[in-house]
Amino acid sequence: MTGKVDEALGYEQARDELIEVVRRLEAGGTTLEESLALWERGEELAKVCRRRLEGARARLDAALAEGEPKDGDAGAE
Fold first, then answer.
1. Cα separation of 13 and 71, whole Å?
2. 8 burial level (CB within 10 Å; 0-12, 13-18, 19+)
C-alpha cells in the first residue's frame, strides 16, 4: 500500500496504522527485513499524517482569515 492508496487514507486511519507499526517495532521479534519494511511503512504513514495536518491547518488559517476585518474596515461605521 503506497502512493495514491496512501493518499486515500484519512488522518485517523493513517495514525492508527502508524501506531500499530510502532507497536510491532517496539515489540521486536521481527527479522531485519521485516523491521526495515515496517520502518519504511511507518515513514510513509507519518508523511500522510503530516500532509493531512498541514491541510487542516491551512483550512483553519483560511477560515480565520475570512473572519478578520480588512485594514480599512476596522472601526468604520
1. 42
2. exposed
